[in-house]
Amino acid sequence: MSGPETVDRVLMTAAVVFVVVAVALLFVRISRGPSMLDRAIGLDVFAAVVIAGLGAKSAFARDSFYFPIMLVLAFLGFTGSVGIARFIAVRDKPLAHRRPAGGKGEK
Prior knowledge:
Blueprint: H1 3-32, H2 36-61, H3 67-91
């Protein structure tokens, strides 16, 4: 093996180790919580770690096959995060500021 190939192999191995450690720590965060928001953030970061893992695999194989998959996962992670944030924002509003079920508030 030449010098650059050795460096590539070491860096790819380090990337895989970091991704595995990140996934293990994320499973701890998702299982422990303590709140729904912590779990939602953990799942969002999990999507980012999966994308990073696919990027490392793509770099190791020198193949661009996974780029569209990474793009779709990024889009799904973003829309999921926005949806959860909107749900939590509505859920955590004080009752005085919520509109009645009829649709229009009193003035």
